[in-house]
Every structure is written in structure tokens, then in C-alpha cells.
Amino acid sequence: MSEIKVLLADRHDLTSAGIRAFIAEKHDLTLINSATSKGAVLKSLAESKPDVLIVDHNIQGFLTLNDLAEAKEISSQTKLLIISSDDDRENINRVLESGINGYVTKECSKQEIVNAIYATAKGQKFFCNKILDILLEKHNQKEDENCEPTNLSKRETEILKLIAKGNSTLKIADKLHLSHHTVNTHRKNILKKLKVKSPTELIIYAINTGLIKPQNTGK
């Protein structure tokens, strides 16, 4: 990806200025707009189809989870990166379950935020340490309710590792020399066996079972 188009949606002047400065330092990152209203965000999405939408879900009267869902409908190729100061674990979990690509906090370093932008643009999952801890905590609570081990086949385990590392179905099919229909079937079987519903939960499973290391998700 030679140029990454970024749309920033944040009403906090200080945060917005900082992120704009980070983006300006990178020759392959282009800020197409810094929107401060829902209308401006949705209009920019429709007109520019950015690679990454950076947004804070926790600004009163700004963008809701429903708005983020609408944003994905307007520009399906745009990846969502949350940069927020929200400390409410229930709120954070709701956002994570909505299918966003990455989530970092406003306390993260410049380098971590820039890394998150690049990873998100590639379609990879990226979570900072704080968010990863929340994900692990939630997943471990679920495991306590049902401690029976889940047996995946060798092929399912191989595909799970690739999914957890951010590979798309087509990329997995190419790597393993399979049809995308076969990969989709394996993906459905994995979700059913593990009783999970999202790629995020698959990542946590892969970390807990040692299939991937935490740094593969941005930690």
C-alpha cells in the first residue's frame, strides 16, 4: 500500500492536533479530513473512501456505535481504529464486539499510535496493552464457565493461526493452496467449535493457547 488515506473524527482539539502531527510526519500517510461532526464524517467517507477512519466513540453527542455501523456500510473498505480515553470496561467491550479493527488509548505513545494506523490499514487487528488485558479478562471469564478443552483439527489450527494474524480468507486460501470456499467452511467450523462469534475472540483464544504471541496483535 503506497499511500494510506486517513480520516480523523475527534472533537477534542488537543488529541486531534497530536494525531494530525503524527500523520504529517509520515510521507505515506495522508490526512483527507479532520471531521468534528457526524455529517462531516459520513460525507468524507462517501466521497473519499479512506483506508482508515480514526474515531473516538466516547464523545457525547458525536458518533454512536450505530453511526460506526453506518460508516462501515457507506465505505466497506474503510478500516476502523478507535483512539479513546474511555475507561468503562463495558463500553470498551461493546465497541470491540462491533467488529472494529483496532483500539488504542489516548495515553499510548506516538509510535504505538502510528503502528496502529499502519496495522489497521492492512486489515490487521491491533490492540494496546490496556485493551488486550480487557479482552483477555473477558475471555478468561468465559473459559471459567466451561473448562472442557476444544479439539481442533491440524488444518483448523493452521487456519486459526492465520486468521488471528489478520489474514483474509483469500490470503489464507492462497497460502494454503485451498479454495476460498474450503477456507470459509473451516472458519465456520472453528467458530462453532470454539463457541465464539468474532475474529477478536479468535485472537484471544490463539494467544491463550500459545498459537500466536501477544505482539502479533500490536502488544
From TrEMBL:
Q: Which SMART domains match?
A: HTH_LUXR, REC
According to the UniProt entry, the coiled-coil residues are none
Q: InterPro entries, per this entry? A: CheY-like_superfamily (IPR011006), NreC/VraR/RcsB-like_REC (IPR058245), Sig_transdc_resp-reg_C-effctor (IPR016032), Sig_transdc_resp-reg_receiver (IPR001789), Tscrpt_reg_LuxR_C (IPR000792), WalR-like (IPR039420)
The record's listing under CDD domains reads: LuxR_C_like, REC_NarL-like
Q: Does the keyword DNA-binding apply?
A: yes
Q: Which domain of life is it from?
A: Bacteria
Its protein name is Response regulator transcription factor
Q: What is the lineage of its organism?
A: Bacteria, Pseudomonadati, Bacteroidota, Cytophagia, Cytophagales
